[in-house]
Amino acid sequence: MSYPTKKLGETDLRVLILVKAMYLRGCVLARSKDEISRMLTIHTFDNATEMGLKLLAKIKNIAPQKGKDHWEFYDLLEKAYAKGIFKDQISALHQQRNRVHHAGDIPAIETIVKYHAHIEDFLKDICKKDFGVSYEELSLSSLITNAELQGLFRQAEQSFERE
Hints:
Layout: H1 10-32, H2 35-59, H3 73-80, H4 87-103, H5 109-131, H6 147-162
Helix pairs in contact: 1-2, 1-5, 2-3, 2-4, 2-5, 3-4
């Protein structure tokens, strides 16, 4: 089933930028490599993914099941990203997140590296195919209208990403 994609408004663009920022925050956590940071990384990656899926559902005008006011994760994944090429990886990340959250399972560094790549690929995929924007160019600075201030903010963002 194919859904029309509407043009991103400023609010939706801001949410997409925040999804990327959350993912990047997870990447920063991942660099610490201690057990708590690895657990938080999985949570952060999963949260960024779910926010991206909810935005996809919104722009595709897909609502949660009748009688529900919120999405169940796998229903959201199935409806908003039905033909997505990273669906299996997103599902596996959510299962890993559940193991971390409910059983205190501490993911291996290799697991973090694997999901780091999968989630970035997922975000690049939806940015291009569903939102019509470049993942690489997504930044909070793009929302600033003052050119001088935007330039300064962009430099700060680039510095943060290099860290």
